[in-house]
Specification:
Strand 10, helix 21 and strand 11 form a beta-alpha-beta unit. The protein has 22 helices and 11 strands. It has a 9-stranded mixed β-sheet with strand order 1-2-4-3-5-6-9-10-11, sandwiched between helices. A two-stranded antiparallel ribbon has the order 7-8. The protein is α/β, with parallel strands linked by helices and about 525 residues long.
Length: about 525
């Protein structure tokens, strides 16, 4: 996959445990709690409601008085400070997602007025990400862009596979050369330690936290390292710690272990089924059976790519790999399914010999959003904390097997982690299990029935790691509950503000069917970073 595409895909990998919770707590106790000097976030009027700051935390918690790492923070102050419960920490997933961007772009939309009234909503860029001493892989962004310009989303032919493996090795060595020390202290366990220092810095006795996707892995790690410091955990779109870390003994690469291929193929089939039922509301129905149309177009793109014109005057060559990656990205939110169907309708009817006059909107947005992360280095946490296969030359075989289980998407996701096979860096302060924890408080766990990135099958096993998890199934489609279910929003509100948790095994419906008309407000939510 192109590392540019890699930037916005949910990947995963975790933990090699050398520190026990006891030694972790001792190291943490020796670390000075930073003082936060909140100030403005700049001159942009859109940022006026927010406050910003940076703090310094130990780069290595075994050397708490040594070198430091800068952590960037933002907060949306509580609307009713007289009745404030505390600070709500957030993580948008990734790994590599910016918590600052999440809160500034979405904090006023995705949390209910009751939550915003009683909590300061806090986002931070995890170490190595965005504004927090980012792990970069080239001296400049321009050099990285040039190096990655011709790397495909994922390889399809044997020749492409050989080239892809060589390129991944080169990219990994570049990351190692440019950011060795940052990557060596990059693990989720260290992010959890940072978060606990920040919890103390804002004056909260215990942590209130909402984690999405990979953020649920951060939540599970925090729960292991600081089980007595948990007030409330909302864990939405669960990433199995065992799958991510490889602590279950699965020898497959992380991209196979995560079962994202299976989750994406299931959601893809649901997208096509919903399209067929939507009749005239889905553009694909004008061309015939939606699955037949898309599958035949995918087959054609393997040998006859389509060139489309982008709004900036450039063009994009839509290969089979690009089409699969674009579809995977657009399966994250059912609000985008009509646009995805229109894109496929245009690709299906495209004259192979000519460029399109205008690129379909879903392709335009996909091409724009893949630049969310500033470097491929910001998503390499799996490389320093997860079990690797140790067999990079076997990735074509892994991909073939994954493709048989989950056509198109299995092959795509199997290549996640190929860079990790060559990086050769391990954070010795990481954590990789066991994952059963001792958190006494009820925690709230959400799983969406058809989730392309964190398969629903992982939800119950994830919930079972907690003594008192309340699992809620969201009947619907897409990744996480953000902007999709007022039922889920109400449960989250009651839980965070009153510690009132629903019964385990509860269900929620989504507010709309995928091909229902979309309001401007709903469309805005669908474009949030996830």
């Amino acid at each position: 996959m192109t590392p540019r595409i890699l930037r916005r895909l949910s990947v995963a990998g975790v933990a090699l445990v050398l520190l026990t919770p006891m030694t972790t707590a001792v190291a943490q106790a020796k670390s000075a709690v930073p003082k936060i000097a909140w100030g403005t976030c700049g001159s942009d009027p859109k940022l006026k409601p927010f406050e910003c700051a940076t703090v310094e935390v130990p780069t290595d918690y075994d050397n708490p008085h040594g070198p430091t790492t800068t952590i960037a923070l933002t907060r949306l102050p509580a609307g009713d400070p007289a009745h404030k419960v505390g600070t709500l920490f957030t993580n948008p997933g990734g790994p590599g997602g910016s918590g600052v961007d999440l809160v500034q772009q979405a904090g006023q939309l995705i949390y209910t007025p009751e939550v915003r009234a009683k909590f300061d909503i806090l986002g931070f860029d995890p170490r190595g990400v965005s504004r927090s001493d980012p792990a970069t892989c080239y001296p400049t962004a321009a050099e990285e862009s040039a190096a990655l310009a011709n790397v495909p989303a994922f390889p399809v032919t044997a020749k492409e596979e050989r080239r892809f493996i060589v390129d991944a090795a080169k990219q990994a060595m570049s990351c190692r050369t440019t950011s060795l020390d940052r990557l060596a202290h990059y693990s989720t366990a260290n992010v959890a330690r940072d978060m606990d220092l920040l919890r103390q810095a804002v004056g909260d006795e215990k942590l209130s936290y909402v984690g999405y996707s990979y953020g649920t892995y951060l939540g599970a790690t925090y729960a292991k390292l600081f089980p007595n410091k948990v007030r409330a955990l909302v864990l939405d779109g669960t990433l199995s710690p065992e799958w991510y870390s490889g602590s279950n003994g699965d020898p497959n690469p992380v991209g196979v272990r995560l079962k994202q291929g299976e989750g994406a193929y299931d959601t893809y089939e649901q997208f096509l089924a919903e399209c067929k039922q939507a009749a005239a509301n889905c553009a694909l129905n004008e061309l015939g059976d939606p699955k037949t149309v898309v599958e035949s177009t995918l087959d054609r793109l393997k040998t006859h790519p389509v060139v489309v014109a982008l709004p900036d005057g450039s063009t994009l060559t839509v290969t089979y790999a690009v089409a699969v990656a674009m579809t995977f990205s657009n399966l994250y939110d059912p609000i985008g399914y009509p646009a995805l169907a229109e894109t496929w309708a245009q690709l299906a009817g495209q004259n192979r010999a000519k460029a399109a006059a205008k690129a379909p909107q879903a392709l335009v947005e996909w091409n724009r959003r893949k630049e969310d992360y500033n470097s491929i280095g910001t998503v390499l946490q799996p490389c320093v904390e997860a079990r690797q296969s140790g067999r990079p030359l076997a990735y074509p075989a892994y991909a073939d097997a994954a493709d048989r289980r989950a056509p198109h998407f299995g092959r795509f996701r199997a290549w996640v982690g190929i860079h990790c096979e060559f990086l050769g860096i391990r954070d010795t302060d990481d954590f990789r299990g066991p994952w059963q924890n001792k958190v006494r408080q009820p925690v709230l766990v959400f799983g969406t029935r058809h989730d392309p990135a964190t398969p629903y099958a992982a939800t119950r096993p994830y919930a079972d790691l907690y003594p008192d998890a309340r699992m809620v199934t969201v009947e619907g489609y897409g990744h996480t509950t953000i902007g999709k279910s007022t039922c889920a929003d109400a449960m989250i509100t009651d839980y965070l503000t009153q510690l009132k948790a629903p019964a385990d095994g509860s269900t929620c419906n989504q507010d709309r069917k995928p091909f229902d008309p979309v309001s401007k407000g709903q469309r805005a939510l669908s474009l949030l970073p996830q």
